[in-house]
Design a protein that fits this description.
Elements lengths: L11 H14 L5 E6 L2 H14 L9 E7 L16 E7 L3 H11 L5 H13 L2 E3 L58 H5 L6 H16 L23 H5 L8 E4 L2 H16 L4 E4 L4 H9 L4 E4 L4 H12 L6 E5 L11 H11 L2 E5 L16 E5 L13 E5 L6 H11 L6 H10 L3 H20 L4 E5 L7 H7 L9 E6 L2 H10 L3 E2 L9 E3 L1 H5 L4 H6 L7 E4 L5 H13 L8
Parallel strand pairs: 6-7, 6-8, 8-9, 9-10, 14-15
Antiparallel strand pairs: 1-3, 2-3, 2-4, 5-11, 10-11, 12-13, 13-16, 15-16
Helix pairs in contact: 1-4, 2-3, 6-13, 8-9, 8-12, 10-11, 14-19, 16-19
Length: 571
C-alpha cells in the first residue's frame, strides 16, 4: 500500500523528512521519528509513551526542535512564514504507540508542512535548535493555481492569540485580480514562492473563522470580503441565538480529530479529570481519545432514550462525569441524539456537552445553544476539494464553563494550522453555501433510490431515521439532511456485487465534492466486527458521501449498481 487516509497512513513527504532527520540525528534501522508542528505536541507524545508503556525504557526517546537558521534568514524576511518542526526520535519498537498517538490526536504535521520543511532541511535553512541561537518564525511553499489570492497562516503565533496578528491587514496587502479562473496547479509557488507573508496567513485564518461564526458568506477575494459588513442571512443564527458569541470564540486546528482531542484535554484542565460519556456510535478515534487520554469513558453505543435513562440513573446515584461527547448526527448510522434532554441533564448534573457537527454542518443544523463546545472537521464538506485538512472548536459564551475554558485556551491554545493549508482551506470554503445546498438535494435523491430496492435491508439517513425529530429540532429553515448516508444489505454477496459495480470513487473520507463510497464497517472496525454489529453496524454496510454531480448522473450510477444484484437476492 503506497498511500492512505492521512491519520491512518503517514504520507510520503512526512516519512521522507522523518527519515532524513533520523539519518542525521538518529540511528537508521533502529530508530524512527514522529513529526509535530510544536514542541508541546512532541512533549505530549512522549508523555503518552510514559502512560501507555510504564515499563518501557524511554531513555533514548528525545525531542528535537528544528528552527530557521539565523544566518540564512535575513531580517528583511522577518515577516515571512519560516520553517519549523519538532521531531520525537524513538526506538522503532515503540512505533505502534507512536502511531496510535498520531492517529488518535491529530497532532502531526501536514504533508505540505513536511514538503516545505524538507526543502529547508536539505538546503540548510532549517537546523536543529541546539546548533544555533533560537530565532525566527516559520515560512512556506507551493500549491495549486486556483488559490491565487492573498490568504494564509503564521506558525509563529504565540499561545492564546487565536490567530490574531494585529487584526487583518488591508492596504499594501491587497492584490489586483489578474483575471481567469485558477484551477489547481502552481498557485503559491508562482504567486509567493517561498516568501509568503504572515499577514496573508492571518487574513485566511480570520476569513475561515468568520465563515464558521456565520458572519462571512461572500464568495469574494481577500481582504475585500473581510471588510464587508456581516451578512443578515441564514448563517447568523449563532450570533443571534447565543448572546455574546463572536468570531473570537472560534479556534482553528490542523484537523478535526485535533479539535476533538483538545476539547477533551481543555475540559480536563478546566474542570479536573473525570470520566466522560460517549453517547451514540461514534467515529472510531473519538472513542479512543476518551478511553486513552484521561480516566476513561462510559460508552452508550446506541444513543437511545433507554441509554439516556440509564445515564440519568447513574447521575442520580451520584456518579460524576466531565463531559458527554456526541455526533450530530452519528457516523455511519446517521442517528441523531436528543440534545434537548442531554442539555437538561448536563445543567442538572454539572457536565459539559461537546457536539461534533461535522456530518450535520452548521448550514443545516444549529446545535450551539445545546452545547458547551462544538467541534467540526473542516477537512470534509467545508473544504470539499480533498486537498487540505482542518478542524475547528467553538466555545459557547453562555456555557457555565466558558470562563474557565477561555482561561485554558488563553494559556494553552496554539494555532498550528500550516500557512499553505490555510490558504487552500479559505479558498475552498468560499462556495461552501452553494455546495451544501446541492449536496443536500443529491443526498435525498440517492437515499430514495436505495430505499426502493428489495436487496437493501436498511438506509441510514437523517430524513428517514427514527431519530428524525431530534434532527429536525435543530434543523435550520434553509437546512437539509446532508450528503452522508449508509445502507446495509440482506446478504453479504449482494453488498459485494453492488459495491463492485458502483461507479463512484472509493475511499474512506467524506464531504468530498465528488461522490465517495466505502465499505465503512470493514475498513474502520475490521478487527472488531462482532462488537460493531452489536450496535447496528453490520459488516454489509456501505457508506456514501454524496457529491456535486448532476443528479440524473448519480441516479443512473446507483440504479445501475443495484440492477447488477441477482434478482433472487435480498428477499
Amino acid at each position: 500500500m503506497q498511500c492512505g487516509y492521512p491519520r491512518f497512513f503517514i504520507a510520503k513527504p512526512i516519512n521522507h523528512l522523518a527519515q532524513a532527520i533520523v539519518r542525521q540525528y538518529g540511528t537508521p534501522g533502529s530508530e524512527k521519528a514522529m513529526l509535530f508542528p510544536t514542541h508541546s505536541c512532541g512533549a505530549r507524545c512522549v508523555e503518552f509513551f510514559r502512560r501507555q508503556l510504564p515499563q518501557a525504557d524511554l531513555s533514548n526517546v528525545r525531542i528535537l526542535d528544528f528552527v530557521p537558521h539565523p544566518e540564512k534568514t535575513p531580517s528583511a524576511q522577518s515577516k515571512r512564514v519560516l520553517p519549523r518542526v519538532t521531531a520525537v526520535v524513538y526506538p522503532e519498537e515503540l512505533w505502534p504507540t507512536a502511531k496510535a498517538f498520531w492517529q488518535h490526536t491529530g497532532e502531526g504535521i501536514s504533508s505540505r508542512q513536511a514538503d516545505f520543511c524538507k526543502r529547508a532541511f536539505d538546503d540548510g535553512s532549517m537546523v536543529e535548535s541546539g546548533s544555533v541561537s533560537p530565532s525566527g518564525t516559520p515560512r512556506l511553499s507551493k500549491g495549486p493555481r486556483r488559490y491565487q489570492k492573498h490568504v494564509s497562516v503564521d506558525l509563529g503565533v504565540p499561545r492564546g492569540t487565536n490567530g490574531h496578528v494585529n487584526g487583518h491587514v488591508n492596504g499594501d496587502s491587497r492584490v489586483v485580480d489578474d483575471g481567469g479562473a485558477p484551477d489547481s496547479a502552481q498557485f503559491v509557488e508562482e504567486r509567493y514562492g517561498r516568501n509568503l507573508d504572515v499577514a496573508f496567513a492571518a487574513q485566511a485564518r480570520l476569513a475561515i473563522r468568520k465563515r464558521i461564526a456565520g458572519s462571512l458568506s461572500a464568495n469574494e477575494e481577500l481582504p475585500l470580503s473581510l471588510d464587508k459588513a456581516p451578512d443578515a442571512g441564514a448563517t447568523n443564527e449563532r450570533s443571534r441565538d447565543v448572546p455574546g458569541f463572536s468570531v473570537d470564540d472560534v479556534y482553528l486546528y490542523p484537523m478535526g480529530m485535533n479539535a476533538i482531542f483538545h476539547a477533551h484535554r481543555s475540559l480536563m484542565l478546566a474542570k479536573g479529570e473525570l470520566p466522560s460519556v460517549m453517547f451514540g456510535f461514534p467515529y472510531v478515534d473519538t472513542l479512543k481519545v476518551l478511553e486513552r487520554f484521561g480516566p476513561g469513558t462510559q460508552f452508550y453505543g446506541f444513543g437511545s432514550a433507554e441509554e439516556l435513562d440509564e445515564l440519568e440513573q447513574r447521575l442520580k446515584a451520584g456518579e460524576k462525569y466531565l463531559s458527554l461527547f456526541c455526533e450530530f448526527p452519528g457516523n455511519p448510522l446517521l442517528r441523531t441524539p436528543d440534545l434537548k434532554r442531554i442539555r437538561a441533564l448536563a445543567d442538572k448534573y454539572d457536565f459539559a456537552v461537546v457536539v461534533d457537527e461535522t456530518i450535520g454542518n452548521f448550514l443545516n443544523v444549529h446545535v450551539l445553544p445545546y452545547a458547551d463546545v462544538v467541534v467540526s472537521s473542516l477537512t470534509k464538506v467545508f473544504s470539499g476539494d480533498s486537498n487540505v485538512m482542518g478542524g475547528s472548536t467553538i466555545l459557547n459564551p453562555q456555557s457555565q464553563y466558558y470562563t474557565a475554558m477561555k482561561h485554558v485556551f488563553e494559556t494553552e491554545y496554539e494555532d498550528k494550522h500550516f500557512a499553505e493549508d490555510s490558504i487552500y482551506l479559505e479558498r475552498n470554503s468560499r462556495d461552501f453555501i452553494t455546495r451544501t445546498h446541492r449536496i443536500n438535494h443529491n443526498g435525498e435523491v440517492v437515499a430514495d433510490i436505495l430505499r426502493s430496492h428489495p436487496a437493501v435491508k436498511q438506509v441510514n439517513y437523517p430524513k428517514h431515521s427514527p431519530t428524525k425529530h431530534h434532527y429536525d429540532a435543530c434543523k435550520l429553515p434553509t437546512g437539509g439532511y446532508g450528503g452522508l448516508l449508509s445502507a446495509t444489505f440482506h446478504r453479504m454477496e449482494d453488498a459485494q456485487v453492488f459495491y463492485d459495480h458502483l461507479q463512484t470513487e472509493k475511499g474512506p473520507s467524506l464531504g468530498t465534492n465528488f461522490t465517495l463510497s466505502s465499505p465503512f464497517v470493514i475498513l474502520a472496525h475490521y478487527n472488531e466486527l462482532e462488537w460493531a454489529a452489536k450496535y447496528g453496524c453490520d459488516a454489509t454496510l456501505v457508506r456514501f458521501s454524496i457529491g456535486l454531480e448532476d443528479t440524473e448522473v448519480l441516479r443512473r450510477v446507483f440504479e445501475s449498481a443495484l440492477s447488477a444484484i441477482p434478482k433472487a437476492g435480498g428477499v
